Amino acid sequence: MSQSRIFSGIQPSGELHLGNYLGAVKNWVTLQRQHESFFCIVDYHAITLPYEPEDLRRRTREMAVSLLAAGVDPSACTLFVQSAVPEHTELAWIFNTVTPLGELERQTQFKEKSARQESILAGILNYPVLQAADILLYKADLVPVGEDQVQHLELSREIARRWNARFDPGYRAAVEARSAATQGGDADTAEHTGFFPEPKPLLTPTRRIMGLDGRTKMSKSLGNTIGLLEESKDIWDKLRPAMTDPARVRRTDPGTPEVCNIYHLHKAFSPPPTVEHVAVQCSTAGWGCIDCKKVLLESIDRELVPIRARARELRADQTTVQRTLADGAVRAREVASATMVETKNLMGLS
Ligand code: TYM
What we know:
The protein is mostly helical. The chain has helices at residues 18-31, 43-46, 53-70, 87-96, 101-105, 108-115, 122-137, 150-167, 169-183, 232-239, 261-269, 272-283, 289-315, 318-347, and strands spanning 5-10, 36-41, 78-81, 142-144, 200-202. The chain is built from 14 helices and five strands. The protein binds ligand 1.
């Protein structure tokens, strides 16, 4: 087990989709055995857009089922729901006081989400501040996420730097010593990580999975997803009409695998010899797109059938799921409350 600590979060959008799974959660499952890991269902983030309370409760439960079924193992990591650990919002408030408004307005996700709303709530603007609090509360240094979260993580690092520079005397002294040494030509002073370490993203080769339209990121809000727990026949109904190489109009036209979303899904789910075979069959027009999609469905099923079976068992045993989340919240709070005591102490708060 390495010294690094991992934190990552996911919105309670109900069932996981293949983008979440390949971009982040599959990586969590590997990393949980290598690092001390905290995984959080971020329901406070979810309420920044309009929602129904009962629906949110259901989606949070479903997300827990999906994560556990996908292999997140509570004996190897801490899995919990954000609103069960009030220190997240407490630290977010503190971070709001060191975050310039301009940095928040520049966030791409803020621009995208606010463009879709008639009235823009302050919560959408402050969303990445809460995300920084999630991570830094656990002093996590590594954050396994998909590519769309990289900008938010840059902001988390910036917030850590700003807070450390203002309130961590050791960090300030180290920065001053480094700048004096650099001016004196001796840049070899020790790094001081600061009270809050600067978290780095951990990306996978499948850091950006496209939706069934092949043009935009797979995302629940864009309605272009394949659910991790969908039955095989439902996945086929979505795969069959899904976008492939746009230049391949007739069955006899040779295709270009690298521009085809289905080929990228093969790379995520099929064994390497199958991926090679697919590339040859596509570029020589040996297979039509439907043939290629049938083989993809087989590969997807091979990986997901056991996950679906496990999800069915977990759905029938909600008591265990709820107990797992409650235990996770207790463990998370131990770390979170210790960070808050130290943070408030350094800031002159009671
Ligand atoms: P969310 O819930 O949108 O997504 C959860 C994770 O799935 C990744 N992901 C994708 N990866 C590849 N291709 C895709 N099409 C795709 N769609 C989603 C996301 O990058 C993410 O890793 N703001 C975060 C939740 C969050 C968080 C945090 C994450 C809150 N606090 C602290 C990390 C650390 C979000 O909305 O993720």
